[in-house]
Amino acid sequence: MATQDLSSTRAWVEVDLGALVANYDSLQERAKPRVGMLPVVKADAYGLGVCPVVRALEAREPWGYGVATLSEGLELRERGIDRRTVLLFNTPEELDLAADAALTPGIGDLDALERYRASARAAGRRLPFHLEIDTGIGRCGVHHAAVAEWLPRVLEACETDLEWEGTFAHFHSADAEDETPSREQWERFRACVSQFPEGAGGVLHAAASVAATRWPEYGADLVRPGLFLFGATAGNEAVQPQPVATVRARVATVRDVPEGWTASYGATHRATRPSRWATLAIGYADGVRRELSNNGYVLFGEESAPIIGRVCMDVIVVDVTGLEGIGPGSVATVIGGPPDSPTSIQAVADRCGTVTYEILTGLSPRLPRRYDVRAPK
């Protein structure tokens, strides 16, 4: 995998694949799943590039990969990734196509089960699936307390047509300070699974990144790491990941402005003194949220500069008064860095009033990704 020459690039994302694999290793060691890991690489690996990410993880031979859409699974197949891939969400119309591409769908209702059963008959072979149990998230899944109603139908479908490869659930509040809701969901999951006949249900998985760090005992057979792999947290994790993604941008122009001069659309910032301002070649079309208008920072080395005025589609203005050596072509860190950095993904998310997931997945495709391929051995 060649790294891209960014010597003339206006802005880009640096992705540390070595840190990503180290995060995988640390989470696996902490959770100690009985079977293995199911890295979730949906949304283009949380915005960092699914193919380079998967290629790096392949060295660890994960049990499989998790995706959210049929197109994501098909992309893996088209790129030559034939490892087991679980389609965690799907629409009924996608089931036949999933079967054709050897993707394993999550099934969360009996109508979908019967439709997938018909796909198996048409294909002339048993098809694997993972059954989703709704233990309280309320999005998808057969209800945990109605097991006596749906279990016979599932077992019947598996007699001739389907292979019950796995059973899973989602925690709705793993990042909350109060552990009670997650503990209740876990107990519901266990109580439901305990009613399966011996050997039924396949591999069990419920813990994604946050739950896997907080409660290793919830690791079950598989862990579904997502956000933690990519160097970010959702809150209350017991351990911190290594940073993986860093967004950089170049200075386009630097200018000295008089007291009273205004910055950007709406003139929402006015200089209170003679100042020196730098315009960076990055904006909300690249994934720098407008909520950072007059409310964020960039870093030149270890020195911070506040974002002033409104974030524009293609540029932002920062106040570099008093900073030495800043000129056209200088490189700033806009998003990324250690947790205590003003540009860390968590700090940016907090300033925007959102979650780290949205900051990562909001990074625009027009930002080239540069990959550090020095993955650990």
Question: How does this model look, in words?
Answer:
With 377 residues, the chain is an alpha/beta fold. It has two domains: 32-230, Alanine racemase (TIM Barrel, Alpha-Beta Barrel); 245-372, Lyase, Ornithine Decarboxylase, Chain A, domain 1 (Beta Barrel), CATH 2.40.37. It is 28% helix and 24% strand. The strands form three sheets. Strands 2, 3, 4, 5, 6, 7, 8, 9 and 10 form a nine-stranded parallel beta sheet that branches. Strands 1, 11, 14, 15, 16, 17, 18 and 19 form an eight-stranded mixed beta sheet that branches. The radius of gyration is 24 Å and the shape is elongated.
Q: Summed up, what is this model?
A:
This protein is α/β, with parallel strands linked by helices and 377 residues long. Helices cover 28% and strands 24% of the residues. The strands form 3 sheets. Strands 2, 3, 4, 5, 6, 7, 8, 9 and 10 form a 9-stranded parallel β-sheet that branches. Strands 1, 11, 14, 15, 16, 17, 18 and 19 form an 8-stranded mixed β-sheet that branches.
CATH topology of the largest domain: TIM Barrel
The CATH C-level class name of the largest domain: Alpha Beta
CATH superfamily of the largest domain: Alanine racemase
Overall pLDDT score:
95
Instruction: Kindly provide the radius of gyration, computed on alpha-carbon positions and rounded to a whole number of angstroms.
Output: 24 Å
Shape: elongated
Would you identify the CATH architecture of the largest domain? Alpha-Beta Barrel
Number of domains: 2
Percent helix range:
25-40%
Number of helices: 11
The description of the largest β-sheet is: 9 strands, parallel
Spans where pLDDT lies below 50 across 5 or more residues: none
Note the gap between the termini. Answer: 16 Å
Which series of helices and strands comes N to C?
A: EHEHHEHEHEHEEHEHEHEEEEEEEEEHHE
Number of strands: 19
Class from helix and strand fractions: alpha/beta
Report the sheet-strand fraction. Answer: 15-25%
